[in-house]
Amino acid sequence: MTFLFWILATLSVIGGLGMLLSRKAVHSALWLALTMMCLAVLYVAQSAVFLGTVQVIVYTGAVMMLFLFVLMLIGVSAADSLRESIRGQRPVAVLVAVALGATLIAAVGNALDFSVGLQAANAEYGGNVQGLAALMFGRYLIAFEATAALLITAALGATILAHRERLFPRQDQRTRSVERFRSGVHPGQRPSPGVYARHNAVDVPALLPDGSAVPDSIPGPLRARGTVREIDATATEEVLDRLVGGAASDTGGER
Amino acid sequence: MTDSFAPFGVDPWWIVAIKVLFVFVLLVVLTLLAIWGERRIVARMQQRIGPNRVGPFGLLQGLVDGVKLALKEEIVPAIADRTVYWLAPVIAATAAFMAFAVIPFGPTVSMFGYQTPLQLTDFPVSVLYILAIASVGIYGIVLAGWSSGSTYALLGGLRSTAQMISYEIAMGLSFVAVFLYAGSMSTSEIVTAQERVWYAVLLLPSFLIYVTSMVGETNRAPFDLPEAEGELVGGFHTEYSSLKFALFFLAEYINMVTVSALATTLFLGGWRAPWPLSLWEGANEGYLPILWFLIKVAGFMFLFIWLRGTLPRLRYDQFMNFGWKVLIPVALLWIIIVSLARVLRTDVALSVTTSILVLGIPVALLILLALFWDALRARIRPGGPSAATGRDDVEGGSAHHAAAEFDPFAGGHPVPPLPGQVMPGATSPPPVLVATTTQERDA
Fold this sequence. Notes:
The complex is a heterodimer. Chain A contains 10 helices and 2 strands. By secondary structure, chain A is mostly helical. In chain A, a hairpin with a 5-residue loop joins strand 1 (206-207) and strand 2 (213-214). In chain A, helix 2 (25-45) runs antiparallel to helix 3 (49-75) and helix 5 packs across helix 6 (128-139). The radius of gyration of chain A is 35 Å and the shape is elongated. Chain B has helices at 13-45, 61-71, 82-98, 126-147, 151-182, 187-193, 199-202, 204-217, 229-232, 242-267, 275-278, 289-310, 316-346, 352-371, 373-380, 390-403, 438-442, and strands at 106-111, 114-118. Chain B is an all-alpha fold. Helix content of chain B is 62%, strand content 2%. Chain B has 17 helices and 2 strands.
């Protein structure tokens, strides 16, 4: 047990330092995840199995993942401006940190003095999960429900903040398809360049059966730049001749 | 309570080692067999033959493919984040292996003179442990996507993470009914609780929700959107090659085996023999139950392959809507029904018929309401979304807005005109943005 503690304690301190000292935000998040995992293993080792697993599911699996999502989508990097926009942030932060540290020390000291130990606590209701359930849905029911209400309010608030008034009616696949056919233009794809032409390069227009070029078959940027290749009428004739003539002679030969 | 966990955690180290080795070898062999089986079965469904050259019936195909994969050239993108790029497949594969530690394979047996259960370990919240490990496994995917330094991989990673987290919620909710009935969150106790009847029968909606969400959770067809080739190339593993790719490959198949084993444990009675066989006393003793367990797991694996051979891939928004707007609400509703039923049966002690009546009538009404919801809505609000096409809405909307005057400082901030409002100085209202085809734009 002591052995496990020293390994995990070292790892969590390394994780905490890594989180503070990493240059990349994602690396910081990963170090923090390591600390969380170490704490979870410590909880399990001290027979608080429920707390340990829930720590991993909620903190490592959900909260940290949310952080990672935001970091990856927004892409915070070391090059970003570090100028603080909120005035007086540092002293307040120091104050809050000291208060939090004091609370933690007080809580741990309190636990050292008055606790009965996890073995006894687990034995009282016949198991770790049962004990937690008895406390949460018995003695601390109101606090539990209040926390639930707070969380739901926060979720609703986030939904409302992220809500955007819809300026245009929602376009789904169906309305888009109706729109496309009503507009009267050809609803399918445009012919690819080089169809029926002599080359299959992008700047060679597709040819209609009468030999004329289809301007739509050239990508817009090329048309705008004017780098569309002209169709050589005589060459088309020649190809047509060869194709028709060749086909005739082929079938003749087979017979 | 404490007694049922007494056999766990007291084995000598070499029995633990044997069990660990057994789980590891089983998972690797099952992966190789699953790859072979998938290719052969899908080939059969598509009127092809499939791999049949290496070994009898091509059985060794997976093995040689694995060797080939490991010996391939390894390409690391230049802008990849080296450490995380290396870490991601390791996390994915490790998490995949770890989840299997709490799956029970059989009853207590005598192994070299020691009485020991055929299960690596168990504790009061082992099903939650599997969920926790699965959420760690997601790290592998999201980190792979991020560290590759490629847009395809990043988008694929985010997409697959969003998908797995969403479906993990539905999956967790489907467990709740099982926990309520078994009175425990430990795998071995849930198997014991299913001695008389399987939870797949008793809690059919939970089972169906679990089976749907397990396909979403493992990123398999028809929910394999993270690997949508036409959109994202390979998704999160686009930039991975050689052994690192092999680890992701391995993790995916082990995850399939794990969710199948979990489904077997929670809903199909675990290692217990199916009904006609269970009449014979010896069917649930000794090492034989491993066979029943593996047959059930193989059944789920076949289901995975069958789904892949049958269903086309869903569109991403439809898939997420299904998860959040159908699967999770249905799961929540089902939990309420189950807990009500438990209370009525145990605390109020109503008879079965009365309970069914008390619960059945509101549920039937709800289902009826859901069925006729669209028709009702159209009657209450004529011209609602189901009755009108988008175009009518656009015209109605612009007519409505045209009357409104444009205030460039509405709310104290400079704002652009809303659709239909005219900028001061402009002669005509700005065009209403409707999806136009390319030809229209070009014309």
